[in-house]
Design a protein that fits this description.
single chain, 453 residues, mainly alpha
């Protein structure tokens, strides 16, 4: 306890005190224009690193520490960081998402995925269907409780409920993958959760695009020159996959022929992926995921060399990314709709538990997946937030209220999700089993795992 107070909480308190002094006196953050952003981001990174260490000391995920310090220092709490300062983290956000997805792709073995295709597909479809149905039913039946639901227009209520159901069902690939990478977990649970997460993310994009097309047609919100749904999906999914293959080939060439400065090259590639996705309206997560898959499964490069290079630069990038995500959590939105948010969080958790458990039983998955798999799908973040922003632009009359409720739900899921998933990985005995380059192979996923009831 003494070491925890001396080396964790005391440095964190000193960081907050110094930043508060600079903000209130005008000597630093808030007083030097562009330099204030540099000071603020620097303190956010330092605070995130200390909070991550503190979180591990009390057996919590480092991501939880990053998120908490972001909330404390953010514009919705102490206001030590302003909205303008957080704009400086946008580039880091894109790089971090690409970095996380690159790790995921590099850890996926297609031979294993093909052998597990039936259970992964079954679990994904059952969980997605059950969660969407429960959320849709609760919102529709209790529509008098929800400010964005019309009481006297059932067709309109059905369409809005459908949109909200799709928004609420999505999980957070970035958080799920980051917890697996951070804990160096390997085994049947982590791989199954990863496979379902990747497949689910692709299906959510397709479902959302379809639901939006139906909503625009039913509510007459679309224009005559609107791009057909098929072309949009072909561009976003197909274009992202092709870009991922190109980046994967570039990374493989570097690993085979250059073999030097891999961490620097990885950062450059992740930045390029992020910018290309932004300019061409592609999916950065999918680009990086395909690139990692290519390196691991279709190239002559050593996939472990890629993962090792990523690990050398990942900690500061992920610390700043998740701390900034915490700072952007709108506590005001949660204060306004906390009762509805908690209701839907509970319903969604029930749906996730039931869907994963039922899907795993139907697919004949291992006991560890049936008992603990649902804890890997609680987190909810970037995808839901991005999709809700699209709803706001398409339906400004009710989309803003939907977004507020989604943000309130995210505030709960971002804190609870990583803790629950790390607990599941710990109970399953998969933490620390991922193989490092040059190390002995970790135990395989077929090894017997005893799961306490």
């Amino acid at each position: 306890m003494r070491d925890f107070l001396l080396y964790r909480l005391l440095p964190f308190a000193l960081c907050l005190a110094v930043l508060t002094l600079l903000r209130t006196t005008g000597l630093g953050a808030g007083g030097w224009g562009a330099q204030s952003v540099t000071v603020a981001v620097g303190f956010l990174l330092i605070g995130a690193f200390i909070a991550g260490k503190a979180a591990t000391a009390v057996k919590l995920p480092r991501i939880t520490g990053y998120l908490v310090v972001g909330v404390v220092m953010g514009p919705y709490a102490t206001e030590l960081l302003t909205q303008d300062m957080l704009l400086a983290s946008r580039t880091i956000d894109g790089v971090a998402v690409a970095l996380i997805a690159l790790i995921a792709g590099g850890e996926i073995k297609l031979d294993w995925m093909r052998a597990r295709l039936r259970p992964i597909l079954t679990i994904t479809l059952i969980e997605l269907t059950l969660v969407a149905t429960l959320i849709f039913g609760v919102v529709l039946i209790g529509r008098q409780l929800f400010p964005f639901m019309p009481n006297d227009d059932l067709p309109r209520a059905l369409v809005i409920g459908m949109i909200f159901g799709v928004l609420a069902v999505s999980s957070s690939p970035t958080v799920t993958i980051a917890v697996i990478a951070d804990t160096r977990s390997d085994g049947v649970l982590s791989k199954t959760v990863l496979g379902v997460t990747v497949l689910k993310d692709v299906l959510i994009i397709i479902l959302f695009a379809t639901a939006m097309a139906i909503a625009r047609d039913a509510l007459s919100a679309g224009g005559a020159d609107e791009t057909p749904l098929g072309l949009t999906l072909a561009r976003e999914l197909g274009g992202s996959a092709l870009a991922g293959v190109a980046f994967g080939m570039a990374i493989s060439w570097h690993l085979v022929h250059i073999k030097r400065d891999v961490p620097v090259f990885v950062l450059f590639v992740c930045f390029a992926m992020s910018e290309l996705a932004r300019v061409l309206h592609l999916e950065a997560l999918l680009i990086a995921l395909v690139a990692g898959l290519w390196v691991e499964n279709f190239s002559k490069a050593d996939g472990h060399a890629l993962i090792d290079g990523i690990e050398r630069v990942a900690t500061p990038v992920l610390a700043l990314f998740f701390a900034a995500a915490g700072a952007k959590m709108d506590l005001g939105a949660f204060a306004v709709m906390w009762h509805l948010a908690l209701l839907l969080v509970a319903v969604r958790a029930l749906g996730v538990w039931g869907g994963i458990t039922l899907g795993a039983r139907v697919a004949g998955a291992e006991p560890v997946v049936r008992k603990l798999g649902w804890l890997g799908f609680i987190s909810q973040a970037g995808v839901s937030l991005a999709l809700s922003a699209i709803v706001v632009r398409a339906f400004p009359d009710w989309g803003a209220e939907v977004q507020v409720l989604i943000i309130a739900m995210i505030a709960v899921h971002e804190v609870v999700g990583p803790i629950g998933f790390q607990h599941a990985l710990t109970v399953a005995g998969e933490v620390g089993r991922a193989r490092r380059p040059g190390a002995e192979p970790a135990a395989t996923e077929e090894d017997d795992v005893t799961v306490p009831i």
